[in-house]
Every structure is written in structure tokens, then in C-alpha cells.
Amino acid sequence: MKVAIVNCFDTYEDRVDLLYEFFIGHGHNVTVVQSDFRHFKKEHRKDSKEGFIFIGSRPYYKNMSVVRLYSHYKFAEDAFKVVEKIKPDLLYTLVPPNSLARSAAKYIQKHKEVKLIFDLIDLWPESMPIGKIKKIPLFAFWKEMRDKSLRFADFVILECDLYKIVLGDAINGINVETVYLANKDINAASAPMLREKEIHLAYLGSINNIIDIPKIKEIIAALKEIKPVTLHIIGDGESKQELIDAAERAGASVVYHGKIYDPQAKQDIFDKCHFGLNIMKNCVCVGLTMKSIDYFQHGLPIINNIPGDTAEIINKYKVGINIDKDLKSSCFLNDILNSLNCDIKQKCISVFNEIFSVKNFYNKLDKIIDYLTGV
């Protein structure tokens, strides 16, 4: 079978790599059509990858701008010119941008013999921290661009179960399955070094406009009433200094480690920490984060305010603490104290292996592809 995978963002590339390896492993002919513009670094990539075709894309430097929307629109057009030449039997399209969904739907209407899978890795505009302006006609049109395209898919894959609720009627009558993000196995030895008289927290990942820095400050201030707090930051982003300043004002000592990709180096830091922070703004529609999967893989329980899938996993497997909007009215401090007395690191690793492993990812894909091909 000839497979074309279309993807705009390098931020989704770990998932795309797993998809590529899955289809190659099953003996299929696979081509990935992807933008050459790196979203986080805001630069064009110069490297090449086997099986990948990188489309030259217009750069943009603001996450919310007309230039960015045009860049995505033009990429969608150019990507499907390449797809026309590939002539795939299976078209696997990651969304967003929503313009890719529309282009894929148009392609399928002309090539009805081709199977189409949409992989909704994010929801626009629902996941954006833009408040009430999501309801203006422009954003409603943007949302409908995706929703009206879904009915042309043979299968829709969702990043988390929360999206089933958010999409509502848009997925009625459509084959839908949640396939969580997955991490490859890592080679890292763990030697926990938890201090009884201190609380160490970790923040991992991009430090951007969707994390709730005031809430993190509130969490630190509450914990400071129990024990001294140290915040370890691994990552970077436009809100880095704002996060550091807020943590220090709340009374924490801050250790900024910068960007770290080596699993052992991350493990060494996490082994000092009692919890990882998984805190985002309430207006953001997210059910699962990549950072939470990283935390679990390294055996780190989380302090979480994300509803849906993550909250349910914590409730079921006891691998962290879900917090309410008002920390003072919750049992937050008692939960923290109780968790500090429990060894829940192994539970986190077990959750990762059961839910977020590559094996589980591939098992779900096997069932989907078998269904589409009638095996």
C-alpha cells in the first residue's frame, strides 16, 4: 500500500516518526509531506530525512497573525500538489492546521478510491487562549473548515477522549478512536534523591502563553507554607522570565536548566523532584499534554489542573494530584503531604507502559488499519 502522511508542524514530528516506522514496518511505501518551517524555533530546517519531503513554507514570527494563517493555507495547497504526484492508497493527515483538513477533503472528493484518516492532534480555535473572541464569525468559519471536512474521512483519530465531547455532533456517524501520544523507550537509570525537609517541583517544556503562571505562583505559595520549595525548569519560551520571576516572588528557589533532551540528564533532575507541574489556563481546550507523558515515563507524579483524560488518569491510577480553581477551598495541602509519604514513582512508570508506550500506540493503529483494509 502506498501511504502519504501530511503534516505541517515539526512539533508533531515525534508522532509522525512513529507513524512512518509503523507503516514501513508493515511493508508499505510511505512518504511524509511536511513543512520545512520549524514552529518553535521560527526558522527553516536545513536537514533532510529519509522518506520525508519538506515543502518550502512562508515564515511567520507571531503565533497569532494573518501571516501565519496564510503560511498554513499556502502549505496546504502546496502539500496536496505533491500528494497528487504520490497517488497514495491511504492519505493520513494531521490536523491542525484546519486548512489541511479542507484540502484533504477536497482531494478525497476527487479520488474517492483513496482511504482518508484525519489525526486531530489539537483543536483550533478551541485550544487557543483567546477567550470570547473564539465566538466571532472568523473563528466560527475556521472551526467549520475542520468540522465540515471530517465527514469525508474513513477514520478520525483523536489525541484524547476530551475531543469527543468538544467535537460533539461533528463526529456523529464517523469512525472515531482515541490514540494517545506515545514516547519511545528511554535508557535512563533512576536513583531518587528526595529531600524530606524540602519540596522540589519540575516544570518541563515550552514556556508559552497557554501555561497558567499565576496558578503556578499560587501553588508554590501554598506549598511554601509546608516546606521550602525549589522549582526546576527544563525548557524555554517567550514566558520564561515571567515564570522565573513569579516563582521567586512566591518564595521558591529557581534552578533554570535550559533545554535538555538527553533522557539521563532529565532523569537526574526529576529524581530530585516530588512532582511535575502540568498547569495550563482554563480557557485552553486540552485533555493531555506531552509533558505529562514525559513526567510519567520518568516516574514523576504530577500536580495537574487539566480536565478530561489527564484528570481521569490521576483519579484512576493515583499518579498525582488534581487541583481545583481555588486551592484554599480544596484538600491540596493534605493531598501533598499524603503523597510525599507514598512511593508513587513506580505507579507513574506503570501508567506510562500501559497507556503511552509505543507498543500500545502500534496496537491501536493495527486495529484501525485492519478495519480500513478489511483484514
Describe the structure.
The protein is of the alpha/beta class and 375 residues long. The protein folds into two domains: 2-182 and 357-373, Glycogen Phosphorylase B (Rossmann fold), CATH 3.40.50; 199-355, Glycogen Phosphorylase B (Rossmann fold, 3-Layer(aba) Sandwich). Helix content is 39%, strand content 18%. The chain has a seven-stranded parallel sheet, sandwiched between helices. Helix 5 (162-167) links the parallel strand 8 (155-158) and strand 9. Helix 6 packs parallel to helix 7. It is globular. The two termini are 13 Å apart. The model has no long low-confidence stretch (mean pLDDT 93).
Quickly describe the structure.
With 375 residues, the protein is α/β, with parallel strands linked by helices. The chain has helices at residues 13-25, 66-86, 98-110, 137-147, 162-167, 213-224, 240-249, 263-270, 290-297, 309-317, 332-340, 345-355, 358-373, and strands spanning 2-7, 29-35, 37-38, 43-44, 52-55, 90-95, 115-120, 155-158, 176-178, 199-204, 229-234, 253-258, 275-278, 302-304, 320-322. The strands form three sheets. It has a seven-stranded parallel sheet with strand order 5-2-1-6-7-8-9, with helices on both faces. A six-stranded parallel sheet has the order 12-11-10-13-14-15, sandwiched between helices. The protein has a two-stranded antiparallel ribbon with strand order 3-4.
What Rg is obtained from the alpha carbons, in whole angstroms?
21 Å
Structural class: alpha/beta
Structural shape: globular
What percent of residues adopt helix (DSSP H or I)?
Answer: 25-40%
Low-confidence parts, pLDDT < 50 over ≥5 residues? none
Give the total of domains: 2
- Spatial order of the strands forming the largest sheet: 5-2-1-6-7-8-9
**What is the CATH superfamily of the largest domain?**
Glycogen Phosphorylase B
- Write the element-wise H/E pattern from the N-terminal end onward: EHEEEEHEHEHEHEEHEHEHEHEHEHHH
Mean of all residue-level pLDDT scores: 93
